[in-house]
C-alpha cells in the first residue's frame, strides 16, 4: 500500500472520530474502522466526500432517510446507510 493511501486512511479515521458530537463520533468512527481496509482508492475518495457532509445531513440520511445535497449518489453513503453498530 502506498504512503498516499495510508495518509488518506489516517485522515479519514481522524475526520470520522472528531465530528463535534459524541454520537456522530461513535457512529462514524465505528463505520470507518470497519470498512476502511476493504475500500479501494475510489471508495476512499467517496468516503472522504461523504465525511465532508454536515453531521445533521448524515444523521438525517441515516435515521430518517432524508436525502439532501446528493448524498444518496455517494456509494460510501449507501454502504453507511446499511451499517449497524
Q: Care to count the β-strands?
A: 0
Globular, elongated, flat, extended or rod-shaped: what is the shape? globular
What fraction, in percent, of the residue positions are helical? 55-70%
- Main sheet characteristics: none
Question: Would you mind describing this structure in some detail?
Answer:
The mean pLDDT is 93. It contains 5 helices and no strands. The N and C termini lie far apart (28 Å). The protein is mainly α and 85 residues long. The protein is globular and about 40 Å long. It has a single domain (3-82), classed as DNA polymerase, domain 1 (Orthogonal Bundle), CATH 1.10.150.250. It has helices at residues 3-17, 22-35, 41-51, 55-64, 75-82.
Short account of what is shown:
This protein has 85 residues and is mainly alpha-helical. It contains five helices and no strands.
Give structural attributes.
85 residues, mainly alpha, DNA polymerase, domain 1, globular
Write the layout of secondary structure elements.
Layout: H1 3-17, H2 22-35, H3 41-51, H4 55-64, H5 75-82
